[in-house]
TrEMBL record:
SUPFAM superfamilies: P-loop containing nucleoside triphosphate hydrolases
Domain ATPase AAA-type core: 11-60
Annotated signal peptide: none
Alphabetized Pfam families for the sequence: AAA_21
Highest taxon above the source species: Eukaryota
Protein name: ATPase AAA-type core domain-containing protein
Family annotation (InterPro entries): ABCA, ATPase_AAA_core, P-loop_NTPase
Organism: Cirrhinus mrigala (Mrigala)
Length: 122
């Protein structure tokens, strides 16, 4: 859990290696521990060290990374700053809903569903 992650991250940062690899560094940590780890990673990055992080958390990537690469099926699909990727790929939503309408009442329910989606995500 979180304590093993803290220990692993501490071991990776100790000794000042020129490149640090961290795999999902804050997964399972409580918010206070995550903030302390992120602060340590940021200080290390600002000291000129290269840090390579794998993460599924966009929040973590935005907080820690100066450049992001997105991989799909083991292939790099895009590379850039967090702001660049958000600007290029972050607008709009795609929602695919498959429904079976068999009665007139279900058709009315479907219209309510459509109206809700359109009002919630303009």
């Amino acid at each position: 859990g979180g304590n093993k992650r803290k220990l692993s991250a501490g071991m990776a940062l100790i000794g000042g290696p020129p490149v640090i690899f961290l795999d999902e560094p804050s997964t399972g940590m409580d918010p206070v521990a995550r903030r302390l780890l992120w602060d340590a990673i940021t200080r290390t990055r600002e000291s000129g060290k290269a840090i390579i992080i794998t993460s599924h958390s966009m929040e973590e990537c935005e907080a820690l990374c100066t450049r992001l690469a997105v991989m799909v099926n083991g292939q790099f699909k895009c590379l850039g700053s967090p702001q660049h990727l958000k600007s290029k790929f972050g607008s709009g939503y795609t929602l695919l809903a498959k429904v079976r309408v068999e009665t007139e009442l279900e058709e009315m329910d479907l219209q309510l569903f459509k109206d809700f989606i359109e009002s919630t995500f303009p």
